[in-house]
Amino acid sequence: MDLYARKLAEHLDVPKLYSDIYQRNAELFNIPLLCRTAMKTAWKDWHFIRMLKQENSIVHLPNHHLGRYGVFLKVPYISTVHDLLRYFDLNGYNIFIHRPNLRDKLYLSLDYRGVEKATRVIAVSHTTKLDLVQHLGIPEEHISVVYEGIDHRVFKPVAHRLVDYLYLLFVGSEHPRKNFVGLLKAFSKLKSESEFKDLELVKVGNAGGPEAEFRKETLQAISQLGLSNDVVFTDYISEEDLTAYYSGAECFILPSFYEGFGFPPLEAMACGCPVIASNVSSLPEVVGKAAIQISPHDVDGLAKGIQEVLTNRNLRQKMIQEGFKQAHKFAWECAAQETLQVYQEVEEELRNYEVRKHFAYFAASFLEQGRAGNPKEGSERNTRSR
Fold first, then answer.
1. What pLDDT, in 10s, does the model give residues 67-95?
2. What strands lie across the sheet with 231-235, from one edge to the other?
3. Backbone φ, ψ for residue 331 (5° rounding)
4. First-to-final CA distance of the chain
5. Which 8-state DSSP code applies to residue 75?
6. pLDDT tens for each residue of 89-103
7. For residue 210, what pLDDT band results from cuts at 50, 70 and 90?
8. Which of 23, 144, 170, 197 pairs with 118 at a CA distance of 20 to 30 A?
9. What residue ranges do the domains of the chain occupy?
10. CATH code, 167-327
């Protein structure tokens, strides 16, 4: 979500307010409601709200967790919603990330109240739009779908290699919704065959926030599957290194149970890496026909899909070519242009609303003055009605 805000800021010629308020808050999930850190954070939140209140124009809050500040604004604002993962956790539909504690429930409730109050909502996929309609009751006409993009100056095939062994690639956190354990199970099935005994699995990205022991659970699964010497963790890396990992991988896999959008499949495709992804949530929108789509619950199917990509050279080349085409449908320039169009639409709607409001006011005033100026006519009309 920080990447989204930063890339839009680079491509939009509009006034901008730079802040790390969301990044700081995202690191504080699962802390107690009454503690020193929570009190200090509340003070910083209030200071940020005061800064926003000084704005007299339409404000764009570039992620739904900033909705907690929109609740306190009087000016119209636009909110981008990337997914409803925390909403589902909040309401007990599933555990996609982590069950929220009391403080998180309070803040998350404010987030979604802020989304509901927004003048217009930007959804990053049609899946997210559908979730907004079904779960928050936001009218369809108040939601604009604007796909996110990738930076094609960064993500492209490179010859540089960081490792000299064959590997599969996963990029993302270890939240339950990412289904990394499902991938580990499929990888274990592959490793049981002699032709894949030297294959490794590279996992890029931090485990997740401090709210749960995501890495501990991952390591337990790895140990149980006998993969302790076959999984490589890189945690956070630079975009340059990430591009090299994409370019050198035999296959990229994202078996998520839920994604609001999903950058990594497109980044992988842009680097010439075949992609296997889940056939649920927004991923079919993102990968189109350029990837193999498999149910995240089908471990055997996932293992077979990976094996097919590794052994079928014609399929692999076709996926690479289709992947390039699919990735180039998504660019930050397009996302910024469509976002600007939303700004203009909202401005026009607000102007029209003001005109209608003033017209209704003057018409009502004229009507009241007319009645006041001819009380006899009003009396006769009342008599007739009786």
1. 999 999 999 999 999 999 999 999 998 89
2. 231-235, 200-204, 167-171, 251-254, 275-278, 292-294
3. -145, 150
4. 64
5. S
6. 999 988 999 999 999
7. confident
8. 23
9. 2-145, 167-327, 341-373
10. 3.40.50.2000
